[in-house]
Design goal:
With 414 residues, the chain is α+β, with helices and mostly antiparallel strands. The chain has one domain: Amidase signature (AS) enzymes. It has 17 helices and twelve strands. The strands form two sheets. A ten-stranded mixed β-sheet has the order 1-3-2-6-8-7-11-12-10-9, sandwiched between helices. A hairpin with a 5-residue loop joins strand 11 and strand 12. Helix 2 crosses helix 4 and helix 13 packs across helix 15. The longest helix is centred in the last third of the chain and has 21 residues. It is globular. It starts with a helix and ends with a helix.
């Protein structure tokens, strides 16, 4: 169902339809993995009935990644203990308030890779989130529950966050449209953080038209009197199938990067992954320091290991990461003096199986997404069809959330 389909329903039928989908379109095991909280039918009818009329998202149900506070609902962030070390929310987060003001109907919260510190959607506490149409393969993470809910057709719209690819990777794996905003924005400022230098807020939709509506309602659409100028940068390491499909899809928007541009960007991006990992390790460790030792045994062991990386870092490594961060941001600034956007592959292969969720695969994914993360740049992800119903995706990287590139690009994929 599209935004318009939901908006055609009265409150009671809409509430019942959402709950029917939530309880029938996923297995019981996957419902536990995807949903952190669902409202009662009575609560949901009230939410639909009180959505402000005449607003662009009026009557559109949405789910929110459980990093965003909702008044009187504990925020777990994919863990089992966060409410024990953090006060229960008494107000809605800024992002939730903004979506509600635009007419969105809050329909519950979704699970995630614990503390958003992972790209695969695995969670030992609640269950691994799978690709809704390809059981046995991951949805991607860390915004796993939100992506799976949209891909399964439960909601047309779901909120997520993206630090190092947590919207971009699930969007590509699940065949969705994804939007990642900019760091330090008010929408992410009061969410539970992973690494504030890179954390951003965003969302998923199932189609281009709904993504355009959401952008218009929440961000605003930029306009231009000329066709935007960009290029496609194919980063090495893609599987042949993904390389071919991404190259073909990118031609709808832009030619391949010329030799000089390609050489310079690849050279500057070469250290982005290491810098990203170091900066995230230092910032996340500082966030968890007040309680980490006392709650060590309640962390996902893989997440705990990532939090402990900070103890292995030298001052020279931290300084080098800061230098790389500055260098990457400078090359992006230079690039946008000439171009309006760049297209990058979002993933190097289709959705991973459980056995394939390894450190090397995680690193290959982050190597594709880290350059835009270090740049602090907004990104629109569009799906790229592959064989057997699988998908990859393209990252359309821009320098402003209101870039006219975004509605223009969506029109090419509508």
């Amino acid at each position: 169902m599209t935004f318009a389909d939901w908006q055609s329903l009265a409150p009671a039928p809409a509430a019942r339809e959402f709950l029917r989908r939530a309880t029938t379109l996923l297995s019981t095991e996957q419902q536990r993995a995807v949903f952190a909280r669902l409202p009662t039918e009575a609560e949901l009818i009230t939410h639909f009935a009180t959505a402000p009329a005449g607003t662009p998202l009026a009557g559109v149900p949405y789910l929110a990644k459980d990093l965003f506070d909702v008044a009187s609902i504990p925020t777990f962030a994919g863990s089992t203990f966060l409410p024990e070390v953090r006060p229960q929310p008494t107000t809605d987060s800024t992002f939730i308030s903004a979506v509600n003001a635009a007419g969105g109907v809050f329909a519950g919260k979704t699970h995630l890779h614990e503390f958003a510190y992972g790209i695969t959607g695995e969670n030992p506490h609640y269950g691994d989130v799978e690709h809704p149409r390809r059981p046995g393969r991951t949805s991607g993470g860390s915004s796993s529950g939100s992506a799976a809910a949209v891909a399964a057709g439960i909601v047309p719209f779901a909120l997520g966050t993206d630090t190092g690819g947590s919207i971009r990777v699930p969007a590509a794996f699940c065949g969705l449209y994804g939007f990642r905003g900019a760091p330090r924005h008010r929408w992410i400022a009061d969410a539970f953080p992973l690494a504030p230098t890179f954390d951003t807020a965003g969302w998923f939709t199932a189609n281009a038209a709904d993504m355009r509506t959401a952008l218009a309602a929440l961000v605003g659409l930029g306009t231009s009197q000329r066709t935007p100028r960009g290029c496609y940068l194919e980063i090495p390491g893609l599987t042949p199938e993904v390389a071919y499909a991404c190259r073909a899809a990118a031609t709808q928007l832009a030619p391949p990067a010329d030799h000089a541009t390609r050489t310079e960007l690849l050279r500057r991006f070469a250290g982005a992954l290491d810098a990203y990992n170091i900066i995230v390790a230092t910032e996340s460790a500082a966030i968890h320091a007040p309680w980490a030792t006392d709650y060590k045994d309640r962390y996902d062991p893989a997440v705990w290991a990532r939090l402990q990386r900070v103890h292995e870092l030298t001052d020279a490594q931290v300084a080098s990461a800061d230098v790389t961060l500055t260098a990457v941001r400078l090359v992006w600034t230079s690039y946008f003096l000439t171009f309006d956007f760049v297209i990058l592959p979002a993933v190097h292969r289709p959705a991973l199986t459980k056995a394939e969720c390894t450190l090397p695969q995680r690193s290959r994914l982050l190597a594709l997404t880290a350059p835009a993360s270090l740049g602090g740049l907004p990104v629109l992800t569009v799906p790229v069809p592959l064989a057997e119903g699988l998908t990859a995706g393209l990252q359309i990287v821009v320098n402003n959330p209101q870039s006219p590139v975004l509605p223009w690009a969506l029109a090419q994929f509508a």
